[in-house]
TrEMBL record:
Residues 2-132 form the Methylamine utilisation protein MauE domain. It comes from the Bacteria. InterPro entries: Methylamine_util_MauE (IPR009908). GO terms for biological process: methylamine metabolic process. Coiled coil: none annotated. It holds the Pfam family MauE. It comes from Amycolatopsis xylanica. This is Methylamine utilisation protein MauE. It is a multi-pass membrane protein. The chain crosses the membrane at residues 6-26, 47-68, 74-95, 116-136, 142-160. One of its GO terms (cellular component) is membrane. It is found in: Membrane. Keywords: Membrane, Transmembrane, Transmembrane helix.
């Protein structure tokens, strides 16, 4: 496995693991995710709980597929499909002027917006990178492995805390 494949696997595995844990950490967290889907008004309200369960199950499948060496390509592919679907849903909701909090990683009050689309496109690019490097070989040294995993961990942290970072650097009326 190349350093690039290791980075993309660890990065996406970490992001999707946090997504699953954030939504499935308890009944209240899952219900908040269901309510955020209802707020988008893209599907009938009665489907929201089923759609939420399907999303969490698919995200968990990405984690498992990326963790098991023989299923990595499927993991990157499923991640890409999910990200395309979620990004499309956000774009449609924004276009219709619908506001819903981003419950992508659990509790957040930040409404879905352009920053979330950009974040998902970055994750989609990582999925494509993972697909491109899946199965690649090369000599790996312990230092390179540590560096790839450390870079992935920093990337996961930046993605998971993106709402906080966007709020920190947001230009408000008071700051002008």
């Amino acid at each position: 496995m190349s350093y690039a494949e290791l980075f993309f696997r660890a990065f996406l595995l970490g992001v999707f693991l946090f997504a699953v844990l954030g939504k499935a950490r308890g009944r209240a967290a899952f219900e908040e995710f269901v309510l955020s889907l209802q707020g988008l008004r893209l599907t009938p309200r009665k489907w929201s709980a089923h759609l939420a369960a399907l999303v969490v199950a698919a995200e968990a499948a990405v984690v498992v597929l990326l963790a098991v060496p023989g299923t990595v390509v499927a993991g990157f592919g499923l991640a890409a499909v999910l990200l395309i679907g979620m990004t499309g849903a956000i774009v449609v909701a924004i276009g219709k002027g619908r506001q819903a909090p981003c419950r992508c990683f659990g509790a957040s009050v930040t409404p879905l917006g352009t920053g979330h689309v950009v974040r998902n496109l970055i994750l989609l690019a990582a999925s494509a990178g993972g697909l491109a490097f899946a199965g690649s070989t090369g000599a790996t040294e312990p230092g390179g492995v540590v560096l790839a995993l450390a870079a992935a961990a920093v990337g996961v942290l930046l993605v998971v805390r993106a709402d906080d970072l966007m709020a920190l650097f947001a230009v408000t009326q008071d700051s002008k």
